[in-house]
Amino acid sequence: ALGREAFIVAPCNENAVRFIEAWPKWPVRAAALHGPDGSGKTHLLSVWAEAAKAAHVHVSALTGTGEPELERLLALGPDAAIAVDDIDAVSAAQMEKRDRALFALFERPAGTLLLAGRAPPGAWKAALADLRSRFDALLAFPMWAPDETLLLGLIRKHFSDRQIEVPEGVVKRILTHVERTPDAIAAFVARADARAMAEKRAVTERLVLELIEAETRPGLGL
Questions:
Q1: Could you give the CA distance from residue 98 to residue 95 in angstroms, rounded to a whole number?
Q2: Over 80: is that where the pLDDT of 178 sits?
Q3: Strand 82-85 vs strand 139-142: parallel, antiparallel, or unpaired?
Q4: Any residues with CB less than 8 A from the CB of 124 and at least 6 apart, and which?
Q5: Structure confidence by residue, pLDDT tens digits, 85-124
Q6: DSSP for residue 2
Q7: Rounded to 5, what percent of the chain is helix, strand, coil?
């Protein structure tokens, strides 16, 4: 679920959400979101892309390994809104091509650019010095901190995305066990779902406790 109503707002991302919702009254033409995988960057990019009627592409579109290519993005017009995901997910061999494409997008006389990456923009590597200064100057918003509100909401959302209703005790029990990262939460929910399906059981607090016990003491098996 990638609509605005499905996005979990928490203290660590509320500034990013407010910024997105302020569109088109932004004080800048380029901005960035950053956080680990699963923190909601792509989700919030999608929310903005829908509101701004923006092209939403992965960084691979700028390195020649995906569609659309740079030429197609530029053909959208000088005032087009463009969102680019996973900016820092490129190899050293791809970096110069990505940088030249990004610089062309920055250099448009109008149009808005929203970028997302795992690290803050100041830590994004760049092959072009001119792009390095652009990264450093970006208005950037973090998307993740391990606060309880967001963690609980993320667990609920992963179950909801799988169309599984679980008691609140299940959600809280998972929170006490799982590593406080988006990937770990998603992986544990997937394991709980898989075990419930394999054993034709509901996802209950007992099932979660059994899974935790099996993972804590692997000699017990599943």
A1: 5
A2: yes
A3: unpaired
A4: 87, 88, 117, 135
A5: 999 999 999 999 999 999 999 999 899 999 999 999 999 9
A6: -
A7: 50, 10, 40
